[in-house]
């Protein structure tokens, strides 16, 4: 087994957790009360598992959609009515979302649940676990899970309520973003000396000191936007704490893609070197929280004709046991960053004409002329065979008002596809084993480089240029850069972290979120944060709506 450390007892406890949304947090009750809690260190560690179980809830689906489809990185148009989903994908693309958008409601509830579960566990474990180093570390880990949830909320919604007391369900209004920032910072700083410095299979998927420093670095890099105060030297210092640990390295070009494969984890090439904090996924895990807790990337990203197909209709290139839904792709504006022929990161994309695994034989699909192009050949059932050709542009040829490309092969093959989280042929379902990284060592390197460029003081003999070139030396055979600019770093981040749900964060920091891409022209700056969703008001009437909504 590659990595299953927190789910043995976690799944048992999760079965007893019931949640109901209330203000920013959730009411959480469990069958495991203080008088029946385990009394040994190993069991206490496992008993804290529900916080991690809750954390995996929306990361690979709804949260990814909110972060990605609101940028130039990704788009999910309808295809013959499929995937319209009440217009929520269209709203993400056009920047016309309202407080009723399904992703906003789902993700607010998800993050609130994490906070509520942690508050409950801190309350019970704080009373029942014997005092000592093990208890201090366990509680510090839980506070880091809560801090990450609060960071996601602050990043997406700005001002949010702060609640740390289990059992206190009095409605309260939002706290200013600066107060939330300071709360998270203080929680993380207090947790760091109590967290483990071990980096091995036993700490994989759990917060260590280095995951805490990575979260601080991310906060400090964005602090000028969040709170109006520059904290670039603090960002550099947080990055240096990870660098000086000598626990991580930039994975080699040869193993970069494997870092995201189904077998990734604490022992796999690439991810063991770079993953500072990752969320494990396992298709055999049973989740009882009201979230997917699945990694469905291949379901959305792989072309339909490269999964399970009818006899003679195509070729199951990836060997997966289902026909992908295939609604998601990138946009030409984002794919333009992948313009270096020597860059290994180009291989995370499916573009243009496709071949069989031999790299030579065309991957052909047999349908009818109408099945291929229903607009040009309406009603023509003459057999038609063609080579799969993924085209770069999204065209709303069936209906622009319903964000619809059509329901034929031309429509389904629009858009270049990302397969960074490589399809999992070992899974019997649409779920995948691929773990999802939240913080990687390459992010530490690029955050430090950017912080120096933005005015921070260089340390450890490194410059912004040397740091960026250290990363690029492991990603491309192209000559090192001779100069560097902030735009250079932005472009490099786009290449390095594609499909990892950080692009919205980057676009806002760089002032690019109000730009034009695809069909989107809306430049409203207030949309850098999302509206407080409808379900939040339903349970907390003291909330006030964000400006502009």
From TrEMBL:
Residues 89-221 form the SusD-like N-terminal domain. Pfam families: SusD-like_3, SusD_RagB. Residues 1-23 form the signal peptide. Keywords: Cell outer membrane, Membrane, Signal. Residues 413-549 form the RagB/SusD domain. Coiled coil: none annotated. This is Carbohydrate-binding protein SusD. It comes from Niastella koreensis.
